[in-house]
Amino acid sequence: xxxxxxxxxxxxxxxxxxxxxxxxxxxxxxxxxxxxxxxxxxxxxxxxxxxxxxxxxxxxxxxxxxxxxxxxxxxxxxxxxxxxxxxxxxxxxxxxxxxxxxxxxxxxxxxxxxxxxxxxxxxxxxxxxxxxxxxxxxxxxxxxxxxxxxxxxxxxxxxxxxxxxxxxxxxxxxxxxxxxxxxxxxxxxxxxxxxxxxxxxxxxxxxxxxxxxxxxxxxxxxxxxxxxxxxxxxxxxxxxxxxxxxxxxxxxxxxxxxxxxxxxxxxxxxx
Length: 271
Prior knowledge:
Blueprint: E1 6-11, H1 15-25, E2 32-38, H2 42-51, H3 61-67, E3 70-73, H4 80-89, E4 93-96, H5 100-104, H6 107-115, E5 118-120, H7 129-135, E6 140-149, H8 158-162, E7 174-180, H9 181-187, H10 193-201, E8 208-214, E9 221-229, E10 233-240, H11 250-264
Helix pairs in contact: 1-11, 3-4, 4-6, 9-10
């Protein structure tokens, strides 16, 4: 392998992990080698790898952390702390898609600093992170995000269950949450990782305001962000096509692939 090549591990081979694994196996990311995966369901994962003709190994996370240069987390949010601890303690790079978990486990950031590792949060389902991070070098007064999702993309969210909010069978849009990004990440751990990532890019989880709507008229996950700063005022909007997992957009996997590509690219565009 060349000096700029990387070995990539994947934690979780669900809807997102399979897209990334297939791309790595096909050689679709230059200078990136598929170093294997750690999974919850070994038989299902091995069946998938066999289906695509891939010989990459299923490994325990400790072994994968030693073997890979970067591990992409595509697992259920509850699994992230254990995965990240192994990777960061080994001084490696952890690409996190469940960004909301970082708000509840800031010790992972301290662990990366202590061991010389790094946590990367790809853009995921939002656009304009470059503008937000740039504006944060100056003074941002406010960041507001309004998320609207099809009903099935929000079903079972802990916040809805805890507060007895029923959205099955609604016939018009219903606002189900308004609060901070920190509160949203806790109440909707599988639904609004974009809110956590936005807050980390900008003014933090306690100053970033989020609204979440269940909308039976939608087939796509939509996000609108408004930023007021001393350097600019800007708005961003995106409509994401859901993946086979209705809680996650297709663009999430593509964003991780793009971030991996940037790690070894001779030209990198964007901050």
